[in-house]
Amino acid sequence: MKPTDNPKTYRVKSFGCQMNVYDGERMAELLATRGITPAPEGEDADLVVLNTCHIREKAAEKVYSDIGRLVKAGEARGRKPLIAVAGCVAQAEGEEIMARAPAVSMVVGPQAYHRLPDMLDRAVAGERGTDTDMPAIAKFASLPDRRKSPPATFLTIQEGCDKFCTYCVVPYTRGAEISRPFADLLTEARKLVEAGAREITLLGQNVSAWSGEDDKGHRQGLAGLVRALARIDGLARIRYTTSHPADMDEDIIAAHGEVDKLMPFLHLPVQAGSDRVLKAMNRSHTVESYLKLLDRFRAARPDLALSGDFIVGFPGETESEFEQTLALVDAVGYAQAFSFKYSPRPGTPAATMDGQVAPDIMDERLQRLQAAINRDQFAFNRNSVGRTCEVLIERRGKRPGQWLGKSPWLQSVWFEGDCAIGDLVEVELAEAGPNSMRGAPRAAIAA
Ligand code: 5AD
Ligand code: SF4
Prior knowledge:
This protein has twelve helices and 21 strands. By secondary structure, it is of the alpha/beta class. The chain has four domains: 9-136, 3-Layer(aba) Sandwich (Rossmann fold), CATH 3.40.50; 145-263, Transcription Regulator spoIIAA; 300-384, Transcription Regulator spoIIAA, CATH 3.30.750; 388-445, CATH 2.40.50.140. The strands form six sheets. The chain has a six-stranded parallel β-sheet with strand order 2-1-3-4-5-6, with helices on both faces. It has a five-stranded mixed barrel with strand order 17-18-19-21-20. The chain is globular and about 60 Å long. It binds 5'-deoxyadenosine and iron/sulfur cluster. The site of 5'-deoxyadenosine has 12 residues, from β15.
C-alpha cells in the first residue's frame, strides 16, 4: 500500500447501541485534536470510521456493504478514503476484516480506540494495523475533555458484561464488567455540565453492576452514584441504561422515589415471557420475579414509564411460549420497547442449540409483538395527555419556531414557542401521536 496524504476531513458512522454513539463521539473528538474536521454533509470524507455493531448478524454484515460503497465512491472521486473499522465487529472479526477488505487500513476495538491517532499516523505511512487489546479501561484517561456538550448527553460509567446470556456476544466483544472510578465520573459529569449538559444518561452494558468507592472510602452502587451526581448544580436530569433485573437493589428502587433529578423511566430488558425460554437464555430472573421487581419500582415511583428488550424466536420457542411474551407485554403496559428476531451469533451457546426457529415464523412473531408494543406505547401517550411536565429542548423542529425535546418519561415532545436549545420548558402534553406528543408551553424555566 502506498503512503497517502494526511486526511483533512473525517466522518464517524456509528451503528447499534448508545454505547457506540458515545464511543463515536469520543473518536470524533480525538480526530479533532489532530486538526481533522468533520466532513460537510453530503461530501465524501478523507477518513471514514465505521463504528460497528455485532449484536445481530444484519448489523455485522452492514460493515462489508458499507466498505464496498466507500471504495466505489472513492474510485469515482479519484481518491480513496482511509477506512477504519471500530466497534464490536472490529473486536470480534478483526483479522477477518483485514483479510476480506483490503481497503480497510485500521481495525480498532472498543477498548483501544484512544490509540486511533497513532494508528492513523501509521496508516498515512502506508501501514495497515489492528488493535483489539482489552486493557482495563485505560482509554478514558487518554480521551480529551469535552468542551461543548449537547443539553442531553451520555456518560459511560461501566463497560462489559459478566452475565453470559446464551444468545449474546457482548461478554466476548466488550469483555468483563469494569466500573469507572467514582471520582472520575463526578469530575467528568461536572465538566459536562460546565460544557452545556443539562441531562446525563449513565451508560453501560450493565449499569446496575456499577460499583465504586466514594470520596470517604465507602462502597457505592449505582444509587450512590446517582445521588452524588444529583448534587451537581446545573444538572437537571439523570437517566441510566441498560440495567439487568438481577442487579437492581433496594437502594436504586428507593432512589427512584427520592431523587427528583432521576427521571421516571426504567429500561429493564426481560427478553421473553416464558420461564423455560428465560432459563435457556441464562437469564437469572423468572416472569414472576421480573413482575414483582417492577411492582417495587412502581411503588417507589408510581408514574414510572417502563421500557424493555425482547427477543422472538429463541431456539426452541413454541407458539404458546411466544404467546406468554405477548401476555407479559399486556401485563406490564410498556411506554416503549425494543424487539428483535433472534440472530445466532457465532461462539455463543444458543447458536448451536436445537430447535432453531424458521425465519417466516420469526417474522410473524415479531410483527405481532411489535403491534402489541406499539399499541401500548400509543396508549401510554394518550394517557399522558393533560399532564404538565418539563421538556428539555434538544433541537429545532422542521418548521420555524418549532422545538423538539424529551418529557421526563422519554417521550419525544414537539411544540412551538420562543425558546432555545437547552431550555427546560414547562409544557402541557396536549395531543398524543403513536411516537410523539404535541406540547403547549407554559413558561421557560430559568437555568
Ligand atoms: N439476537 C437477537 N437479539 C439480541 N440481543 C442481544 N443479542 C441478540 C441476538 N443474538 C438483543 C437483546 C438485548 C439487546 C441489546 O439486543 O434484546 O437486550
Ligand atoms: Fe448481553 Fe445478557 Fe450481558 Fe445484556 S446482560 S449484555 S443481553 S449477556
